[in-house]
Design goal:
Length: 294
């Protein structure tokens, strides 16, 4: 299926539980990828566990990614926020969806965009964020040593001046914006080997500017009284636990956090571990998506 966001046609896949009654309106979870992900990469692993629990699931490609229209060289959180809200708007009109029971499950940059979307759209009744950040500048700085940060900022300032004249931003390997540890580099290499689109993916430095200006933590108070759950990894090299727990502390209740220890960032996708995590997530969603809630 497809829907539109700010004039761009976005591709999606809407899945229903095998046991769903065709005459009943179901709770639904919108699953949102992080950092250049698509609806057919990683998200099916979340979706299968959600549909197995009885939720309908919409996974979709942001503008410019996968099968959706738009520039592939952009990762602007505010644009992805708009895409999430458009997905929610589409679902509210679907005959098999209960419009009062819509949640969003999202990862990393998608988790930050989901928090912003929930602060703007009360149709989102619950949010599950894996490794969210609340301040894009603080997040990108946390990935760098002091001199690396200074060099990065200088590079962004030069690009900002150049594109004010030319209208064009320098295209770079996304790993120059999101710095990874050895485990992350290895996993990204495997992903690029398996996917030509991922291998050829470039980002304009204007995306780094857009991320740095993004501060969903400024709007957390507008989410209450809807529920939020965070999932974090204790020794995460891509989303520091300290940043996630600080963001969590600023959230109004109701809220929940699941902190995983003894693993690395991408280890959550190991099948048995993800099943255990999703059991906790589904229990949270059962409590949060109360039928006929106003």
């Amino acid at each position: 299926m497809s829907f539109f966001s700010e004039g761009r046609k976005l591709a999606g896949t809407l899945e229903f539980p095998d046991t769903a009654d065709l005459g009943s309106a179901l709770p639904v979870v919108v699953t949102c990828a992080g950092w250049g992900g698509t609806k057919d990469r990683s998200l099916p692993e979340f979706a299968s566990r959600l549909t197995g629990h009885g939720f309908a699931v919409l996974r979709f490609d942001y503008r410019g990614y996968g099968l959706s229209e738009g520039s592939a060289n952009r990762l602007h959180p505010l644009e992805q926020t708009a895409d999430i809200r458009s997905a929610v708007g589409f679902l509210r009109g679907h005959p098999r969806i209960d419009p009062s029971r819509i949640a969003v499950l999202s990862v990393l940059t998608g988790a930050a965009a989901a928090l912003q979307a929930a602060s703007e759209d009360r149709a989102i009744r619950a949010v599950v964020g894996f490794f969210p950040f609340g301040d894009g500048e603080r997040w990108l700085r946390s990935l760098r040593r002091t001199w690396e940060w200074r060099e990065f900022v200088a590079r962004l300032e030069a690009d900002r001046a150049a594109r004010a004249i030319s209208g064009v931003s320098e295209l770079v390997d996304p790993n120059e914006i999101l710095l990874r540890d050895a485990h992350g580099i290895e996993r990204e290499a495997r992903s690029r080997e398996a996917s030509p689109a991922r291998r050829d993916w470039k980002l304009g430095l204007d995306s780094a500017d857009a991320i740095m200006a993004f501060r969903p933590e400024d709007h957390l108070a507008r989410i209450a009284p809807r529920a939020v759950m965070f999932v974090a990894v204790e020794n995460d090299s891509m989303a520091a636990l300290e940043d996630v727990t600080t963001l969590y502390g600023r959230l109004p209740s109701p809220k929940r956090i699941l902190v995983l220890s003894g693993i690395r960032h991408h280890d959550i996708y190991q099948p048995e571990r993800l099943t255990r995590i999703m059991n906790d997530v589904c229990a949270f969603l059962d409590e949060s998506l109360i039928p006929n809630a106003v």
